[in-house]
Structure formats: structure tokens, C-alpha cells
Design goal:
Length: 76
Amino acid sequence: MVITKDMPLGQVVMEHPETIEVFFRHGLFCLGCAAASFETIEQGALAHGLDVEKLIADLNEAVAGAAAGEAEGSDR
């Protein structure tokens, strides 16, 4: 799955918990607030003055890393 700036924050965190660390590293700590269920990644990032494109790139890197780790584990 590719993460896009139009996806709701809550959906991304629920489907990819490995992204929580990325959100925190970027200073986006409102993952548990009510807005996270309907606010998009872009809306949250802009509200906090974050670089949306860098955040999306880092989120996709985290998801890809987790997927690669799962694939390696299934080979054993």
C-alpha cells in the first residue's frame, strides 16, 4: 500500500502501526485526538507547519521497511 497525503491519519496508523514513530519524529503527536479519524495527513501536517512531502516519503519508507521485514520472516 502506498500512503498518500489524502489518507486519514487514523486509517494509516491503524493499518500501519509502524508509522507512529514517523509521525512522532516529525512532531505530529495528535494521532489519538478526535480529528485524526477524519483529518488527512496533509491537513494535519499543514496545521503543524510540517513538510508534507517529506512526511509522506518517510511514512512510505517505514511501510516498505516493515513489509520487507515481514517477507524475510516468511522465508524462514
